[in-house]
Amino acid sequence: MSCHKSYITTPIYYVNDVAHIGHAYTTIIADTLARYARLINQDTFFLTGTDEHGQKIEEAAKNRGKATQEYADEISAKFKNLWDEFDISYDKFIRTTDKEHKIGVQKAFSVMYQNGDIYKDKYKGHYCISCEAFFPETQLVDGEFCPDCGKLTSIVEEESYFFRLSKYQDKLLEWYRDNPQCILPKSKRNEVIRFVEGGLNDLSITRTSFDWGVKLPKEFNDPKHVIYVWLDALMNYVTALGYGTDEANMEFWPARVHLIGKDILRFHAVYWPSFLMSLGLPLPKHIGAHGWWTRNGEKMSKSKGNVVNPKEVADAYGLENFRYFMLREVPFGGDGDFSQRALIDRINSDLGNDLGNLLNRLIGMSGKYFDGLVESNLVKEFYRKELDEVNSSISKLEPLLFELQLHKYLEELWRPLTIANRAIDKYQPWSMIKEGKRDETMALNGLIATILAKVSIMLHAVMPKSTNIIANALGFEINPKSFNHIIREDKILAPFKTKKREPLFPRIEKELLEEKKPQEEKKEIKKEPKTLTLIGIDKFFETSLKIGTVVEAKEVKKSKKLLLLQVDIGEDRPRQIVAGIKEWYSVDDILNKQVCVVANLKPAKLMGLKSEGMLLAAKDSSGLSLIIPEKPKVNGTPIS
Ligand code: MSP
Question: Domain for residue 28, yes or no?
Fold first, then answer.
């Protein structure tokens, strides 16, 4: 796989939360590819950014009492700062709230429409706000929960514009078939093929139920609609190159690789190529889907309090050590576990013993026997076999990198280090020098230096700073020119002098971060804002809270969680409320109880049943308790 332009992307991250290890992982893989592409002198464009529209973001802002744009600005800046601190070498940081992006999205909408791929209709379906996606009833868990994230879905019925996704089914299958590497790893491609073979429904691509998004182009004269967040978001890959505005950078299109997590593969491997075909644009060369990180074997979640903060890890263990660990530890596409023990083992063993120590051995031997001088001109004469083995490993590396087999890349890259360490043990320079074999000893040092030089060049994209230090100790600089000389042309290193230095990867004896005990998951306490926002009393009174009595209670068929209640709150008829309390209250428990009701909540549908309010309740690890008045009160009495 070779191409002289390399356009490499990460997903754009939602601004409803701060970065965690999963975000850092994708970004570091992309950064590694971009750095390598630059090192081999390819014209490279590396894109990352933030995904800022949609109901999820609007709600996150509301929960924190912030204006949506202000909130998006804040979180987007946090991502950007983190990547800057992490020395991520992006060429552009796109935000979907950028003006140019919005223009590009609108242009795409018009072009798709002109090409006959967009029509208007009515849509009714189960919508998961968290995933910003509709799901057919058959896919729901327990008839109401999202099959992807497990959260409660709600029924959304609205007028919508549709994209003719069904039209692209055969073309997509053809693309997957003709391009065996279009989705990496290959096992993921098979999953996508099976999904598409199952049939594609047209896709609802506008929403009227909220406002926070890109409006339809003016000519549609339909201001109620905003463009579906995934169409908006996916378009970032071309609007970042100027699609719809200044298109000069479009010469980077198609992307060499879109790096993503496996959870968003369908959007990238089904919707995105269909949109591109509709726009008449070429399809990306590769979509690389990585697996999921867990912590000490457990799923990470905010409510468990066990989310790995990449900044904390990098600060404690060193950014580049962390980069190496993430890429080396997990086969691309597989799930991986973060544990400090595993990280420490990699640092002490791979980096400290195999790599850092080799440099120290070279410094020690050259200092002792040759006053620091290292010459490599006799390496081929005395150590041809070792050098051939090293070169054979090195020549396997580049394809592994671009096939995203980064763990194999690093595994293979460590072979030359083993060859070097073994050569020292085998040839015993301390004996050779005693026997007066000065040329052989110098050549052995030359071999070690050559191996260290090659390894540091090939490791540069993963650990830029540490490898610069190694190269500096060997008297050269890592750049496209030295890459050509030392890797491609196998030229010998110029003579240099070593100096004593501190170990590059000092041994770590114990865990450096305090291990937080995962708490029991408090799944449903998700509405609690992170930081307390003070509100005025008038804001409190915007919520109408009333005393009511449950006058009728029934179970909701097929639901493990819901009860259907009629609650008298002093109006001319009882309110129907669908309450998720069945695990803690039976029909008999709740009947005739007085409860506290949120009376001015927008009606919602749960499992097809209208719900006209909400009961106040509190839930902790021991279960859920309804909030009830301490003394009986007249139905409809306001709570304040
Ligand atoms: N905004 C969308 C992407 C739009 S791209 C056109 C999105 N954002 S996200 O912030 O929720 O997720 C971004 C990436 O983080 C995804 O690739 C996802 O797979 C990854 N991860 C989220 N949690 C993760 C782990 N625990 N482990 C590894 N990666 C994970 O989706």
Answer: no
What is residue 300's predicted lDDT score, i.e. its pLDDT?
A: 84
Task: Please check whether residues 415 and 548 belong to one and the same domain.
Answer: no
Cβ burial, residue 520 (10 Å; 0-12/13-18/19+): exposed
Whether the pTM exceeds 0.85: the reply is no
Does 92 reside within a domain? Answer: no
Same domain for 343 and 423: yes
| Number of alpha helices (DSSP H) and beta strands (DSSP E) in the chain | 23, 26
What integer pLDDT is reported at residue 537 of this predicted model? 80
Contact (CB, 8 A) for 45 and 241: yes
Asked if residue 28 lies in contact with residue 326, where contact means CB atoms within 8 angstroms, the answer is yes
**482 and 596 housed in the same domain:** no
**Residue ranges in the chain modelled with pLDDT below 50:** 1-2, 521-530
Atom of ligand 1 nearest to the CA of 234: 6
Token pair of 77 as six digits: 């800046």
What is the Cα–Cα distance from 290 to 91, expressed in whole angstroms?
Answer: 22
Are the beta carbons of 71 and 14 closer than 8 angstroms? no
pLDDT, residue 517, reads 66
Q: Which domain holds residue 479?
A: 334-497
pLDDT value at position 442? 98
| 51 falls within a domain | no
Distance from chain centroid for Cα 533 = 29
Q: Identify the CA nearest to 410 among candidates 453, 460, 479.
A: 460
Residue 27: both structure tokens together: 């970004």
DSSP class of residue 607?
T
Ligand 1 site residues (CB inside 6 A) read 11-14, 22-23, 25-26, 51, 233-234, 236, 260-261, 263-264, 292-293, 300
| φ, ψ dihedrals at 578, nearest 5° | -95, 115
Q: What is the 435 CA–ligand 1 centroid distance (Å)? A: 61
Record the tokens describing residue 50, joined without a space: 């933030």
Residue with token string 């726009």? 279
The structural domain count of the chain equals 2
For residue 548, which amino acid is it?
Answer: G
- Whichever domain contains 470, its CATH number is 1.10.730.10
Given CA atoms 323, 328, 330, 331 in this order, what sign does their dihedral have?
A: positive
- Beta-bridge mates of residue 7: 45
> Does residue 578 belong to any structural domain of this protein?
yes
User: Which residue(s) pair with 625 in the sheet?
Assistant: 618
pLDDT (0 to 100) of residue 175: 98
Give the C-alpha separation, 318 to 321, whole Å. Answer: 5
What SS3 state is found at 473? helix
Q: Which of 263, 295, 335 to mutate to test the pocket of ligand 1 (most atoms within 8 A of CB)?
A: 263
Write out pLDDT tens, residues 59-109.
Answer: 999 999 999 999 999 999 999 999 999 999 999 999 999 999 999 999 999
Measured distance CA(185)–CA(400) in Å, rounded: 12
Do 296 and 267 form a contact (C-beta atoms < 8 A)?
no
The DSSP letter of residue 535 is -
